[in-house]
Amino acid sequence: MNVYLGIDVGTSGTKVLAIAADGTILGSGVGEYPCYAPRPLWSEQNPDDWWNAVVTVVPQVLAKAGIKGTDVKGIGLSGQMHGSVFLDKNDQVVRPAILWNDQRTAKECGQIEEAVGGRAKLIELVANPAMSGFTAPKIVWLRNNEPENFDKVAKVLLPKDEIRRRLTGEYATEVSDASGTLLLDVAGRRWSAETLSALGLDESLLPTVYESEDVTGRLTQAAADALGLTTDCFVVGGAGDCAAGAVGNGIVRSGALSTSLGTSGVAFVHSDEVKYDPLGRVHTFCHAVRGKWHMMGVTLSAAGSLQWFRNALCAELWERAKSEHEDVYNLLSAEAAKTPAGADGLFFLPYLSGERTPHADPDARGCFVGLTLAHDRGRVVRSIMEGVTYSLREAIDIFRSLNVPVDEIRASGGGAKSPFWRQIQADVFGARVVTLNSEEGPAFGVALLATVGGGEYANIQEACDATISTVSELRPNPETQKYYDKAFPVYQQLYRSLKDDFKAISGLC
Question: For residue 307, what is the domain's CATH number?
């Protein structure tokens, strides 16, 4: 039996998934590690922690599933995007990796846009505006603030690609993750020579770029020994976690869009052509599908908004749920389901961590608008669910305005476990919402990419068709959809009305 591994280098831990060629899950495991914040708004990790998780969990998964190392033919890699691993000429880590959620680079973002000739020019070159989470601002920050470390740097790798280097000895990445560096010509699927020149950076700092299903190397003897595998085992390009998760949801053709309601929320749509928003409100990246692209919008506090409400204001209900062996979210969802659409005029703006799409506003703040004495917990919960869904609709409406078709929504993440919240999505988006047999996320997506690299399937579309199927479907309720279409512009106006007040509030803190 041919076995393929998906390894997802996440922020809280690394997940290892083993699948058979037909997509059957054979085993999985997770190795956790810390995240460090040496200063406010900083976020760093030690790449050694990622590697230690890999060499610990892979053998555990193989042993638990009864898989022989000789059966593992290939590995796909996924991971947190945008992070910067700085290596010296001896492949030693120069300093802790700076992560996607690090916010130290606001000044550098402005410097980058100025260097290339403005925000519009940067979007033209790399399809995206400068944002503090991206990789290029981190490189410029290192040069500005730690010149002695910058002078040592010989290579800059993304988190999953540092694991690739330790597995294969190769400096390689792939187009989906490279798109999030702000240094890739997304239309041309290669490093942007003009952007690198404007920033005074040499392309030799960067790894070779592959397509996601391409074989990028084979295990070194040392890596094979550490993992209990063989040097015949290859590693494909893989994908950044968002693209990998989309592949795991079968978002590999035009018309398919996925929504993920985890701590943050993501709306991700496949595009056969490279299209970008001139205003930079949504991201345009290369997809993990050969020769294709995707567009993506992000709301920073999605299911995380409901988690905040549970933690801060539902202690009694949470204790009751524990005593009854019930999920507290099921109880909250049941209360919300008894309330009318629109929660009797209550709106929630889910900006508990600032906001990315479409506002890119770190000063934005979460708030309830329209509270009255008639509003109970069920209505408050419903307003949270509706507000998060409205925030994702803002991204979806941008996709549609660019003539990217959205025919079907594939829902995933913790929030998708609630049929009620899925129905709100169907009604707010005006589209069919389905769930799938696969819930393994990015690790499953890159394991499928490895099966393509191993010749089990002709392409990733064929692999998804063979392994992913629909298990439930919800369609919009016409009356409720009509109400949300009327209420959505009110939701949008609230941000515009409060934007200056958010900034003033931020200045008081």
Answer: 3.30.420.40
